[in-house]
Amino acid sequence: MFKKRILMALCLGISACALTGCAVPARKVVLSTDRIYQAIGPYSQMVGYGKHIYFSGLIALNREGTAIEGATTAEQTRRVLEYIGEGLASQGLSYDDVLSSTVYLQDLNDFAAMNAVYAEFFKKDPPARSTIQVARIPRDARVEIAIVAARR
C-alpha cells in the first residue's frame, strides 16, 4: 500500500511537470544580489521556486543598510522600486515579469503619492496588488514593497 501511494504521488508530480513544461520538480533556491542592501534579519532577499521568484519586502535603506533614503513616501517608493528593478535585473527579469505586489504603507493618506510613483514603473499591464496600512515598518520606513515575479 505504501509503495502504491509513493508511485501515485510520483506519477502526479510527473504529470504536473508535463502540463507546466518543467523538466524536473521545482525546488527552493535562495537568491541574492549585491545591487540591493543585504538582508537585515534572518530572511533571504529572494527565493526562487520553479519559474517564480519571491522577493522579501524592501524598504528604502541605503546600500549599506544603515539609513533610510528619502524623507517622503514618494521618494521612498521610488527607491524601493529601483531596488526591485535591480533585483529583477539580477535574475534576467524586468518589471513586466512581476505578477503581484504587496505594498505596506505607514499612512494610507500617502496612497496617492505612492501610487503616482508606482505607476511610473508599471506602465503597461501592471501586476495584481494589495495595499495595506500597517502600524509600523522596520527602521520607521514609510513604505515597504514585496513582489512575486516569474520567468517566462
Describe the structure.
The protein has helices at 2-20, 73-90, 111-121, and strands at 28-31, 46-49, 52-55, 98-105, 128-133, 143-150. It is α+β, with helices and mostly antiparallel strands and 152 residues long. The protein has one domain (26-150): RutC-like (60s Ribosomal Protein L30, Chain: A), CATH 3.30.1330. Strands 1-2-3-6-4-5 form a six-stranded mixed beta sheet, with helices on one face. A hairpin with a 2-residue loop joins β2 and β3 (52-55). α2 runs parallel beside α3 (111-121). The chain starts with a helix and ends with a strand. The model is unreliable at 1-19 (pLDDT under 50).
Q: Which labels suit this protein?
A:
single chain, 152 residues, alpha+beta, 60s Ribosomal Protein L30, Chain: A, six-stranded mixed β-sheet, 3 helices, 32% helix, disordered N terminus
Topology at a glance:
Layout: H1 2-20, E1 28-31, E2 46-49, E3 52-55, H2 73-90, E4 98-105, H3 111-121, E5 128-133, E6 143-150
Parallel strand pairs: 4-5
Antiparallel strand pairs: 1-2, 2-3, 3-6, 4-6
Helix pairs in contact: 2-3
Low confidence ranges: 1-19
- Report the principal-axis shape: globular
Helical content (DSSP H or I, runs of 4+): 25-40%
Please state the second-level CATH architecture: 2-Layer Sandwich
What structural class do helix, strand and pairing data support?
A: alpha+beta
The profile of the biggest β sheet is: 6 strands, mixed
CATH class: Alpha Beta
Question: Which percent range describes the beta-strand content?
Answer: 15-25%
Strand/helix succession? HEEEHEHEE
Number-wise, the strands total: 6
- The total number of structural domains is 1
- First-to-last CA distance: 39 Å
Instruction: Indicate the CATH topology.
Output: 60s Ribosomal Protein L30, Chain: A
Number of discrete helical segments = 3
- Major beta sheet, strand line-up: 1-2-3-6-4-5
Give the mean pLDDT: 89
